[in-house]
Amino acid sequence: MCVVAHPDDECFGFGGALALAADHGVETYVICLTDGQAATHRGSAASGKELGQTRRAEFAASCKVLGVGRHELLGYHDGDLQNVAFMEPAEALVCRMRQFRPDVVITFGGDGGLNTHADHMMTSFWTTAAFHWSGQAKRLPDVGEIYQPERLFYLTTNFFIPDRQPPLPSPWTITLNIESVRERKNEAFRQHVSQAPLMERTKELFAKFGAEEFYTLAASREPGPSTQMSSLFDGLDQPE
Question: Is-contact 172 214, C-beta < 8 A?
């Protein structure tokens, strides 16, 4: 399960991990909290509602390219997630974790990603709470059958965007080689036509750094020392 804030987060940040999982027969589910109506880049949209509709379609097309089996937008307001009452989206995510029963959950770290976006930070906080609460009988006992995912990972980085406030990223425990799916990640990003200026602005960065994604193991069912892993699924049963 991958939890993101905006359409295009799923490919811009997590596209390699999602495509690799699909290639290995792992069922994937992407939950996006907003439809991106407050985006700086608006394409030909004449209103926020029209932009939201456009970005919903772009999100669906991107997920199809990445081989995502299930995707959903929850409809919160882009750019305003810090003002949403904490329990509402946390409960929505607990419900979906207990229904989908993922082994692995991936999301942003609390730094807010490369652009230190407050929506990314709130997505991290809600997903982290939901990861832990999903397996606790005392939390939301009437919201589905208790289920504890195995691992929670945060997206992190080995580079910063020039002329931007740098984040405070967590040290990674996985260097994920995505070279085999790199073009598919790029193709998924190209589905977000309304965000073409962003693609152009970041093109050189991804040409230089785009062969890898970095993740931090933030929580696990099994205690142990921090070690470097080669996959989100190391040691877990996977489809052949």
Answer: yes
Separation between Cα atoms, residue 215 and residue 17, nearest integer Å: 10
Counting beta carbons within 10 angstroms of the beta carbon of residue 179, is it exposed (0 to 12), middle (13 to 18) or buried (19 or more)? exposed
Contact status, residue 146 vs residue 101, Cβ threshold 8 Å: no
Distances (CA, A) of 54 to 42, 71, 197, 207: 9, 16, 16, 27
**Residues near 112 by beta carbon (within 8 Å), at least 6 away in sequence:** 118, 120, 121, 124, 167
Given the structure tokens 């730094």, which residue do they identify? 111
Q: Does pTM top 0.90 for this prediction?
A: yes
What domains are there in the chain, each with its CATH number?
2-220 (3.40.50.10320)
Q: What is the pLDDT of residues 207-236, one digit of tens each?
A: 999 999 999 999 999 899 999 999 999 989
